[in-house]
Model the fold of this input.
Amino acid sequence: MSFIHKHKPHLIIWTILLVIVGVSGYIAFGTKTNQKSLLLAPHSQVQVDTQSNKTTTTGTFVKTHKKNIKTLNKRLQTTLTENKKIKNSSQKPLTTTTQKNQTLNSEQTVTANTTTPVYNITLQVDNKKYRATITKPISVYQLMQKLKKTNHFTFTGTDYGSGMGFFVKTINGKANNTHAGTYWIFFVNGKKSTRGVSTKIIHKGDIISWAYEKDTSD
Done:
């Protein structure tokens, strides 16, 4: 904040006072000039005119002085009122920002305390069952990867990319037998899946089962 902006009310007051002093001096100077001119007039006329001029000049000065004081008071009051408004307006945004921060903090707390839904999924291989929990629908392949990290469950295979996906070759050490025509085939809720492990999405409560049997799809 600059010096002029900081002391603006005081500068206004001093300016008004200088104006009042200047006007008063001008009036006083004019009065003396009139008195000098009256000295050249007859004695009787000087006496009458001097008294009337003195009365008029005194009344005019008093009225002007009162008027200037009222004007000064009004400007001073206006300046004080504007300063109060500036202070109030500068404090309101801070209060609003504080309230917004408190609201955001409360919303974050509610979000953090919200319980994420958990779904139970079962995967069965032969007569052995593996259980896992998920928070959103995932593919069979993603489930098998999850079980591989947390259970005594292993599998291998080949990923043929986005077109064909992942092809399972072994589960828990038992491999597909191309000569005998037996392969690992998976079922969802007792029904043979028509999709691969990479594209078949499982949901809450689904049971995935793998069976080692002959492929009769041909």
Remarks:
- Residues 13 and 73 are 9 Å apart (CA to CA).
